[in-house]
Amino acid sequence: MRRVHLDHNATTPMRPEVRARLEEVLDGPAANPSSLHASGRLARLLVDEARERTAAALGVHEDEIVFTSGGTESNNLALLGGLPPGTALVTSAVEHSSVLEPARHLERLGAPWRRVPVDASGSVDPAAVLERAREGSPRAGLVSLMAANNEVGTVQPLAEVGELLAALDERPLFHSDAVQALGRLEVPLRSWGVDLASFSAHKLGGPQGVGVLFRRAGVEVRPLLLGGGQEGGLRPGTEDVAAIVAASHAIELAVRDRAAFSSRAAELGRGLWEGLQAAFPEARLLGPPIDASARLPGTLSVLLPHVEGKVLVTRLDLEGLEVSAGSACASGSLEPSHVLIAMGLDEERARAGLRLSIGRETTWTDVAQAVEIVRRTCG
User: Fold this and answer.
1) What are the φ and ψ backbone dihedral angles of 4, each rounded to 5 degrees?
2) Do 56 and 179 fall within a single domain?
3) Which of 55, 128, 347, 352 lies at 20 to 30 Å from 214 by C-alpha?
4) Are 233 and 309 within one domain?
5) pLDDT grade, residue 333 (50/70/90)?
6) Pair (233, 116) in one structural domain
């Protein structure tokens, strides 16, 4: 049975060029980049070059790049290490759990947490973000908004938010979880006005276990771990040289190929939705309209009639189609999607969301086969 993978928001296959680069470094001498001998200096050179290439791809300075273990660690470091003591945290109601859980932790420690609601498409109103940032005492010290939602694909108006925050007398730090955006959207960090931004290599054809935190020059972030001076003292521990090199290559390729991939993913996504809609006239597309500029290309969250999403995922998997019910990180949870609840759905419908996400390897044959499997399974 030929299987169809439409769960690329969860992870992507490693690109062949990236795998080749990973294996090339792994075949070299084993060395700690902190060692002073020749092999150690070579390892340090590889990490330094990877940092330069990553920074160039993102349009920032190399000293503003911190390598982490992934998007989750980058988000945790930004919030737990970046929120100034004695200030409040502002997030949207639809952030990834790796933002919401640190926010809950900070709230338990006494930091006020102000949540910004979203509309029926999953988008925040920039004026509402500004209102939460200016609300009461203590002042807001950090605002965190994801660039694109991992479940429904809503793209947030970061540039507008950044402009409003910049006008405040006591401007809070601005962080964005941009894990889903890189490689599919333009990521103009300077134009967004963000101070911190999180990325993950395995979402764009790189290895799992490597992330990036952009930290604007001059922004203070406290380390979460202690014991070494690596990554400017923010992420102690011996660097995974081969994985970092491969991750930087994946980021370069994703940025280079973004326009072509985004266009193709949008076309495939439109075809997928049209096929599902024809098979199930009662189906509902969640988030922005299929062709809206505020939709992440190739991401669909769909409600099918009389079917619970998590049950359907298992049934589809048995038929050869790999998809998710909401976020893959919470796919085993019995709780309804917090994203869909925030968008105004009741608990029953919030359990019924089915996420289909397209990747570089997805073909029109995959789309047609996916529609047929869903039709056969749910018809």
Assistant:
1) -115, 125
2) yes
3) 128
4) no
5) low
6) yes
Residues labelled as active-site residues: 329
Mean pLDDT computed over 78-89: 98
- Structure-model confidence comparison of residues 127 and 311, the more confident one: 127
Task: Give φ, ψ of 20 to 5 degrees.
Answer: -60, -40
**Res 327: pLDDT:** 57
Domain encompassing residue 231: 16-256
Q: How many domains does the chain have?
A: 2
pLDDT of residue 330: 47
Is there a single domain that holds both residue 272 and residue 199? Answer: no
Task: Give the residue from 261, 362, 285 showing the smallest Cα distance to 6.
Answer: 362
Query: What one-letter code names the amino acid at 240?
Result: D
pTM of model > 0.90: yes
288, 302 in Cβ contact below 8 A?
no
Distance between CA 370 and CA 114 in Å, rounded? 40
Same domain for 178 and 313: no
